[in-house]
Amino acid sequence: MGTVVMYSSVSVDGFVADENDQPGPLFEWLTSGDVPLDAGGGLTVSQTSYDYTRPYWDRIGVTVVGRHVFDLTDGWDGKPPGGIDHVVVVTHRPAPEGWDRDAPFHFVDGVEAAVARAQELAGERTVEVAAGDVGGQVLAAGLVDEVRMDVVPVVFGSGKRFFGSVDAQHLLEGPDEVVQGSRVLHLRYRVRR
């Protein structure tokens, strides 16, 4: 099985979005460099951020998100973001009416079942879990192997927390990597078992 990684860009004070579900400047580092990060050239980062981010992104086989993120993005119009093969959506509701059943999206009830399905689909590739409420639930269930965060120099004061509503202590190792990019600090921690 591949590694299960909880990931997102995050404010210095630990938020992945503001109170209105807006990321604000959290993704500016993805458009402030001169090295294309994606095939379309829409994302440009510093060389340092490219060297850190691109190999990680290339290993991702499946992303796990909550229904809220799925709805906010309109399901990425049925095309998984960033060239990822599949998206597993944690939800108690069925796919939206009229949803293309051939799109590589899988609607699963519960985080344990979602991670199990994602690992089946990913094989040896990485399972990425979006930070926030679902990511926090996956961490609390003991299913996260690694935490990655791109810390952006902004303070939100309030909003959607990186670890969601986790209410227990979880110890991390390291950090195993600390990489300073342009307007971002990339961090990687293994979860202590």
TrEMBL record:
<protein>
    <submittedName>
        <fullName>Dihydrofolate reductase</fullName>
    </submittedName>
</protein>
<dbReference type="InterPro" id="IPR002734">
    <property type="entry name" value="RibDG_C"/>
</dbReference>
<feature type="domain" description="Bacterial bifunctional deaminase-reductase C-terminal">
    <location>
        <begin position="88"/>
        <end position="170"/>
    </location>
</feature>
<dbReference type="Pfam" id="PF01872">
    <property type="entry name" value="RibD_C"/>
</dbReference>
<dbReference type="GO" id="GO:0009231">
    <property type="term" value="P:riboflavin biosynthetic process"/>
</dbReference>
<dbReference type="GO" id="GO:0008703">
    <property type="term" value="F:5-amino-6-(5-phosphoribosylamino)uracil reductase activity"/>
</dbReference>
<dbReference type="InterPro" id="IPR024072">
    <property type="entry name" value="DHFR-like_dom_sf"/>
</dbReference>
